[in-house]
C-alpha cells in the first residue's frame, strides 16, 4: 500500500510517498513560495540526486499536479501510474474538540474543518486547500485528516480550561488545545520501544523544540498537559513567538505604542521570542554563535529559553507524580547539544544525570543519560510523516477500494 503524505502551509507544501508494506520512503520533497513567480520545488529519491527547480506555481492545486507528474516521470519518478497511490494522508493543524482521532475525509468532515478554521485562521485554510486540491485531482483516492490537536484531547478539564467565564468555553470553544500532537505521540511511542517498555507503564515528558516549541506531559500513553494552548503562540518562548505573557500587556502596548490589536498580534507571533530578545535571529545556531562572541542579549535569549523549558519539565513532573524519561525532539531538541545540556543542568533533583559524552550527538536515536540514571534522557528524531501514513493506512485499509 502506497500512502502520499501531504502537509500544506499557506505558501508551502511538503510531501512523502511511503510504501507501507515496509514503511520505506519512496520519494519526498517540498514546494516553497507557492503563489510566486519564483516558487521553489525540490524532489528527492533514495540514492539519487536531488531535483530542484524554480518556476511559477500559482496555487496548491498546481503544486500537486507537478508533484503527481514527477512521481510518475520516466526519469525522476518512483511509480508507474497514479493508480499506485492508494490513499492520501493530510496533516491538519486544528481539529478542536470535534476530532480526537484521525478521520476519513467526507463532506461532513470538510464542513467541520471549515468550522475549526474559525479558531485557526492561519493554519487550517491551507490544510483545507490541500485536501480540496487532492480531491479534485484524485477523486477516487481516499483522503484522511490527521490532526495536531487530536493527541491532546485526553487532557483533563483542569488542565485545558482557562480561568475565564465558563461560557467562553461552552459558547466559543476557548480552551487549551495543544499542538505538535503527532510528534509528541511518535516520540513517546518510540522512546518506550527503545526502553523495552510499553507507554502505559511510563511517565514521559516530551520536548518538541524548534522554531515552534512545546512540551507535553504523557502519562500511561495519554497527554495530560501540554504547553501550547488555544493557539500555538502560548507556552515556551520560541523562535519568533513570545510564549506566555501577562494578557494585560496587550492593551498596554496598544496604548503606549499606538498600535492596533492586529499589529500587536503580528509582533507577538513574528517579532518576539528569541528573535525579539536577542535582536540577532530566530535561528538558535546564529544566536549561539553571537553568545559565544560575547553578545549578552543573545546569551539572555538562550538563558530564557532554557529556563522556560526546564521550569515546564519541573511542573509536568509534579502533575504526573514524577517522571521516568525525558525525550528531546525536533530541530533544536535533536541537534542542540548545548541546549540539551543547559536545559538538563538543574534537573538533577528529579533523578536525571546527563552524560555529556553521550549527549555529543545530532539527529540520532540515542540515550544521553548516564548508565543507571533514575530518569532516562533520550534524543529521538521525530517522524510525523510516518505517523500520518500509519493512521491513513489504519483508516483506509478496510475500505473497499472500488467504491472510491
From TrEMBL:
Mg(2+) binds at residues 7, 384. GO terms for biological process: acetate metabolic process; acetyl-CoA biosynthetic process. One of its GO terms (molecular function) is acetate kinase activity. Pfam families: Acetate_kinase. Belongs to the acetokinase family. Keywords: ATP-binding, Cytoplasm, Kinase, Magnesium, Metal-binding, Nucleotide-binding, Transferase. Its EC number is 2.7.2.1. Its main location: cytoplasm. Its cofactor is Mg(2+); Mn(2+). It is found in: Cytoplasm. The record marks 180, 241 as: Transition state stabilizer. The active site is at residue 148. HAMAP family: Acetate_kinase. Pathway: Metabolic intermediate biosynthesis; acetyl-CoA biosynthesis; acetyl-CoA from acetate: step 1/2. GO terms for cellular component: cytoplasm. Mg(2+). Can also accept Mn(2+). Homodimer. Substrate binds at residue 91. It catalyses: acetate + ATP = acetyl phosphate + ADP. Signal peptide: none annotated. This is Acetate kinase. ATP binds at residues 14, 208-212, 283-285, 331-335. The keyword Oxidoreductase does not apply.
Amino acid at each position: 500500500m502506497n500512502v502520499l503524505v501531504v502537509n500544506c502551509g499557506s505558501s508551502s507544501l511538503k510531501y512523502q510517498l511511503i510504501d507501507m508494506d515496509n514503511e520505506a520512503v519512496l520519494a519526498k520533497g517540498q514546494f516553497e513560495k507557492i503563489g510566486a513567480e519564483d516558487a521553489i520545488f525540490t524532489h528527492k529519491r533514495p540514492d539519487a540526486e536531488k531535483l530542484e527547480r524554480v518556476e511559477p506555481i500559482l496555487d496548491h492545486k498546481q503544486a500537486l499536479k507537478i508533484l503527481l507528474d514527477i512521481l510518475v516521470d520516466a526519469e525522476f519518478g518512483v511509480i508507474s501510474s497514479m493508480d499506485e497511490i492508494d490513499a492520501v494522508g493530510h496533516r491538519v493543524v486544528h481539529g478542536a474538540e470535534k476530532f480526537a482521532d484521525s478521520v476519513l475525509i467526507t463532506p461532513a468532515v470538510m464542513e467541520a474543518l471549515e468550522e475549526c478554521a474559525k479558531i485557526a485562521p492561519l493554519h487550517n485554510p491551507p490544510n483545507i486547500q490541500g485536501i480540496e486540491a487532492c480531491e479534485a485531482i484524485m477523486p477516487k483516492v481516499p483522503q484522511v485528516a490527521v490532526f495536531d490537536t487530536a493527541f491532546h484531547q485526553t487532557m483533563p478539564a483542569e488542565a485545558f480550561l482557562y480561568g475565564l467565564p465558563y461560557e467562553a468555553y461552552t459558547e466559543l470553544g476557548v480552551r487549551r488545545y495543544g499542538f505538535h500532537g503527532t510528534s509528541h505521540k511518535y516520540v513517546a511511542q518510540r522512546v518506550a520501544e527503545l526502553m523495552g517498555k510499553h507507554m502505559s507503564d511510563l511517565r514521559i515528558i516530551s520536548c518538541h523544540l524548534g522554531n515552534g516549541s512545546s512540551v507535553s506531559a504523557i502519562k500511561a500513553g495519554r497527554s495530560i498537559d501540554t504547553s501550547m494552548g488555544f493557539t500555538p503562540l502560548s507556552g515556551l518562548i520560541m523562535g519568533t513567538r513570545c510564549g506566555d505573557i501577562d494578557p494585560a500587556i496587550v492593551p498596554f502596548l496598544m496604548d503606549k505604542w499606538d498600535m492596533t490589536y492586529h499589529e500587536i498580534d503580528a509582533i507577538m507571533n513574528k517579532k518576539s521570542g528569541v528573535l525579539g530578545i536577542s535582536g540577532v535571529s530566530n535561528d538558535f545556531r546564529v544566536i549561539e554563535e553571537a553568545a559565544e562572541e560575547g553578545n549578552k542579549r543573545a546569551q539572555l535569549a538562550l538563558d530564557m529559553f532554557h529556563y522556560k523549558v526546564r521550569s515546564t519539565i519541573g511542573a509536568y513532573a509534579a502533575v504526573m507524580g514524577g517522571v521516568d524519561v525525558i525525550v528531546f525532539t525536533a530541530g533544536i531538541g535533536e541537534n542542540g547539544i548545548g541546549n540539551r545540556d543547559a536545559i538538563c543542568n538543574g534537573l538533577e533533583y528529579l533523578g536525571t544525570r546527563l552524560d555529556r559524552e553521550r549527549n555529543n550527538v545530532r539527529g540520532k536515536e540515542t540515550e544521553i543519560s548516564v548508565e543507571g540514571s533514575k530518569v532516562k534522557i533520550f534524543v529521538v528524531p521525530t517522524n510525523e510523516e510516518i505517523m500520518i501514513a500509519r493512521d491513513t493506512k489504519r483508516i483506509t485499509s478496510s475500505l473497499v477500494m472500488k467504491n472510491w
